[in-house]
Amino acid sequence: MDSYRFFTSLFLSAMITSTLIGSVATADENPQVLANQAFGILKAKCYSCHGGEETYSGLRILDRDVLFANRTGKPFITSGDPIASKIWEVIKEDNMPVSPDDYVTPVPLTAEEKETLRNWILAGAPIPESGADRDHISRLQVLQWIEEDTDDLDSRDKATTKYLSLVHLHNNPEISEYDLRLHRAALSKALNSISLSDVIVLPKAIDKYNTVYRIDLDDYRWTAHKWSQMLDHYPYGLMPNTRNKAEYELFEDIERNLDGYFDYFTDIRADWFVAKAIRPPLYHMFLDIPEYVEELEARLGVNRFQDLKKGEVIRGGVLVSGISSQNRIMDRHRSNYGSYWISYDFQIESGKGNIARYPLGPDHGDETINRFCFTHDGGEIIYRLPNGLQAYMLTDDKGKRIDVGPTSIVADGARVSGTTEIVNGLSCITCHKHGTKRFDDVISFSHAVRHAKARELIDEIYDVDAIQKVLERDRRDHLLLLVETIGPFLQVGEVKEKAIDSFPEPISLVARQYDKNMTVEDIACELGYENSSKINLNDDDLIDLGLGLLRPEFADRPADLVYKRAMWDSIVGGTSVYQEACEVLGLGQPILRKGTLKY
After folding, report:
1. In this structure, what are the phi and psi dihedrals at residue 269, rounded to the nearest 5 degrees?
2. Is the pLDDT of residue 9 over 60?
3. Contact 528, 560 (CB under 8 A)
4. Alpha-carbon distance 589 to 578, whole Å?
5. Confidence check: pLDDT of 596 > 70
6. Per-residue DSSP letter, 531
7. 78-115 tens-digit pLDDT
8. What is the DSSP letter of 11?
9. What is d(CA 211, CA 226) in angstroms, rounded to the nearest whole number?
């Protein structure tokens, strides 16, 4: 059975031409030709509704796991059998539901496109392998690059220089060139989204393949202590052992080059960093997000009470928002670094949760006005960092920081965190990928307040025109910063002129890909092998680690027989299964970590 792999490969850098898409591919066609043609069709006709960060019908057209997963009713695709495939059932009769998005209209497939997809399924639904011809990069080569780079470092930079790597993804033939570009963009965006610096700083590649990147902690205003706290969570730390003499000698050279500042981690996996540093506890730790919203506002120069008292806040209210079925109020205040948005969210819409009856609040310091104040149950803050990018904080009804929004109030239909939970940082970056989201205030013309003084304040702060202007301005500013942060990695070659908001949000795609179930080939790439033939899955020590379930004789078993990422990277007793597997295979010695950071 084909491996289950999340793919952004429909955005392959080698784009499928319209002529290729339009021709009919037969079932005995070269598998890669069939795969490229089928994926070109799916990208052109299906991705707008069934891809990216938000999907309809639970279908991610780029997600191998979803396409072939066991599910109630037919799988979306049953390899080799169009009749048993839900996708074919829908497209053969043009039985496509009307899109719930007014701006997206499903485009019917031509007869030729349908036939190509049918033949693709008959041929086993192969996946494009656009990275199969890349040079394999060994662990020895990575250490050589880092040794050469550290040898040239200025003495003032040795304490703060760190390296992040995409080598294992470069070595994986199932990862396209476009996938790699997305990972580079995600790394840059992640670094700058948790930066305390007032400028955008891009990571610098030290190799010709753009797989190993150097950063300086000072560029992001991070201390060595913060980096060390992050390393307490890192499950891939490995030191060469004396059995690998060449690697061990390079490791010692790097240690000497860094003059006592070496922390024994030569490089950190960039995909792990993106997936983990953008969610709690690391997200809160890097940004020093305080425990209570009042502390954050004091730091940012925001005084909501005074702004409300003076009417110097712009407010809007909606009855249904994108992440909640309950009504919601959003305020915009000024801060030291630009905009400061705070939402007031509700678990129920009756009583003081009904914003049409109680559109003021949370406290105006006026007994009369306070008769019309809502009582909220939580909130989300979107604030500007010194470099201009957005940061986020979720709070409960008391303004205390929380890691995850209660699903009774807010939920993530895109499941970017793996569940419907809104996870601070990751979920917010996904939702606000292009900055502030447009919304239309309904309270200014529909509220039920008759009291003259209260109505006067409502008319002052619920300004429909003003809120549209600031939403558009904040969004425009954010897009300009995205051009600076991720543009150099995405706006290249034939897509150099493509608008930055036409690309997928890279952090969420990398986080989702990192969390995917693993195949034996994935594991081989992560261990540094060119293919899985170097791994003896019948070895008792590897079986003890649970890797025996990936043995070839089990390949025809149910699709849920997989090795999960959490099995591979969770730190238990100071080490992860990855580290233990490396030790068993003689690839290195684990660096013990705590894995227990609280913030």
Report:
1. -65, 125
2. no
3. no
4. 11
5. no
6. S
7. 888 888 888 887 887 776 655 544 445 566 788 888 88
8. G
9. 24
